[in-house]
Design brief:
mainly alpha
Length: 115
């Protein structure tokens, strides 16, 4: 009886650990899209920060340009929020995404500093 309990427990642990990653909902951006969006969002944030405006003014300007950015990229604010929430739950994927974002931003910075 005791052995069967441990066998069942081991099977349950194995099944839970081997579950496949949840399917990405259809409205969630792909990894490549998310990388692109985050790069552009961080560049936008840096540009707004460089304006040295009061927080409320900079937030209004940011919101305006964020809407324009999302329109240019063909996504909605809701899609961005849903994608962010999804990738936060998938922490390993989010780490990979941010590694790509940081690498891309550093490469752009080096390119800009070269001129």
């Amino acid at each position: 009886m005791r052995n069967s309990f441990f066998i069942v427990l081991a099977l349950l642990i194995f099944v839970n650990c081997s579950k496949k990653q949840a399917q990405r909902p259809p409205n969630v951006l792909t990894r490549d899209q998310m990388v692109r969006v985050l790069i552009d969002v961080h560049i936008l944030e840096a540009k707004i920060k460089k304006l040295y405006l009061p927080r409320d003014s900079s937030q209004l300007i940011y919101n305006h340009y964020e809407g324009m950015l999302f329109d240019d990229l063909g996504i909605t604010k809701e899609q961005y929020a849903e994608s962010t929430a999804y990738y936060i739950d998938e922490i390993d994927e989010m780490k990979d995404i941010y590694n790509q974002v940081v690498d891309s931003l550093l490469a752009r910075q080096k390119l800009n500093n070269a001129y």
